[in-house]
Design goal:
binds copper (II) ion; 4% helix; 2 helices; binds CU-O-CU linkage
């Protein structure tokens, strides 16, 4: 048992559930000892409700309240979390599910599965981890007398945790932080949640990676799963044994359950440990041993490059007004992460005119993956009107890249950043601003 920060005293926070087109009011009270904020990740809502202090929405001081009021335009699996420092790496996260009035929903159950990497109250605090990364980065700078030699980041070639991502490139990094625990729906592998159903039931699983520094590979032992949506938008159904999911991303999948008790495993890429839940369709079946690693984790997991947008979900096929580069880079020594060569403090915002199609050319110049997230919009991977999926967060593999187009239909100032909380804190953020 640990004490930490959470929404409404539970982890994950209780899911919000609305229907697309609904107007939502949220009376948010900050009972924490520090200022905080709430960002509605994946919702293309009005800019002043986006929850980014100093950019869109005031920070909420301890003891204060803020009243959110916005219309939710699009269906999908979304979530919310603070946009203040490293607070996301505590227990402050919750699902935000927007139902589609036009979707039949061909399944018997729906399970929300929230993944997290956990340290607070067990290991170091997020702030201590960040300070240690910064201090280690200083100590390692060659030429300082505290130098311990350069620490090079090498991708581990092959083995677990590797796989092809968007536009080539090996996905092989292990993040910057080793965590004592990995959680599914707030529970460690040693005390897993048990999800009940009957043999033959079809279940829609809504996967959310709320981790701060961990990419997961997810599989349900003995089952093939069919991916139907990512970041709220439908894709052409794609069967797979395992899904690779970066921080901030969501995948919806449908699975038809066998008869027995099965391990649902989220394996952290390149890290020790795993998150686990049990899916039980038979009272008599023995619980799978804690050490069981589903065979489905042995192959290549599905990544975003395997997905195509569903019919009707593409952006209109229009030429972008221009291409803006988004070059990702950084180092451990010193511990600094940048976009286009600069940290957030020095960033020149990207600009777009309302009604235009914008194109971002994302290129990863580092040996780590970065889940890049755009607020207030979804982009289409590849080109507007093409076959790539619609997303708001895309995992860019080491030395890889992606071109994404977005429709500028939601005026304001919007964050673009890496959803690794430590990278964002170390500078890997910029803004997209509408010109008037
Ligand atoms: Cu999920 Cu700017 O964040
Ligand atoms: Cu990053």
């Amino acid at each position: 048992m640990v004490s930490t920060w959470a929404y409404g005293g539970v982890i994950p926070g209780k899911a919000f559930r609305v229907t697309a087109g609904d107007r939502v009011k949220v009376a948010f009270h900050n009972d924490l000892p520090e200022p905080t904020s709430v960002h509605w990740h994946g919702l293309a809502i009005r800019n002043d409700m986006d929850g980014v202090p100093d950019v869109t929405t005031p920070s909420v001081d301890p003891g204060q309240r803020f009243d959110f009021d916005f219309v939710v335009p699009d269906p999908g699996t979304h979530w919310f979390h603070p946009h203040t420092g490293l607070q996301l790496d505590r227990g402050l996260y919750a699902p935000f599910i927007v139902d589609d009035p036009a979707e039949p929903g061909d399944y018997d159950h729906e399970w929300i599965v929230v993944l997290d990497d956990w340290t607070d109250g067990v290991g170091r605090s997020p702030e201590q981890i960040f300070d240690d990364l910064v201090a280690a980065g200083r100590a390692d700078v060659p030429g300082t007398d505290m130098g311990m030699g350069m620490r090079m980041r090498q991708p581990d070639m092959g083995g677990e945790g590797s796989g092809m991502g968007v536009d080539g490139g090996m996905m092989s990094d292990a993040g910057d932080v080793a965590y004592p625990l990995f959680l599914i729906n707030g529970r460690p592998a040693s005390d897993p949640e048990v999800l009940h159903a009957r043999p033959g039931d079809r279940v829609r699983v809504r996967l959310i990676n709320a981790g701060s520094d961990t990419i997961f590979t997810v599989a349900l032992a003995g089952h093939e799963i069919t991916v139907t949506h990512t970041d709220g938008y439908p894709v052409r159904p794609e069967d797979t044994g395992a899904i690779r999911i970066g921080m901030g991303e969501r995948y919806d999948a449908v699975v038809e359950l066998g008869d027995g008790a099965f391990a649902l495993i989220a394996e952290p890429v390149g890290k020790r440990g795993s998150a686990r839940a049990i899916v039980r369709t038979s009272a008599a079946a023995p619980t799978p041993p804690a050490s069981q690693r589903p065979n489905e984790l042995a192959g290549f997991p599905l990544t975003v490059s395997a997905l195509q947008v569903a019919e009707g979900a593409a952006l209109p096929a229009r030429e972008p007004v221009g291409t803006q580069p988004l070059a990702l880079s950084g180092s451990m020594t010193p511990y600094v992460w940048t976009i286009n060569g600069v940290t957030y403090e020095e960033a020149m915002p990207l600009t777009i005119g309302e009604g235009q199609i914008g194109r971002l050319q994302i290129s990863n110049m580092s040996m780590m993956s970065h889940p890049i997230h755009l607020h207030g919009h979804t982009f289409q991977i590849g080109a507007a009107g093409g076959t790539g999926p619609r997303k708001d967060t895309v995992l860019i593999p080491p030395m890889g890249g992606a071109t994404v187009d977005f429709a500028a239909e939601n005026p304001g100032q919007w964050m673009i950043h890496c959803h690794n909380a430590y990278h964002a804190e170390a500078g890997m953020m910029t803004r997209l601003e509408y010109t008037t």
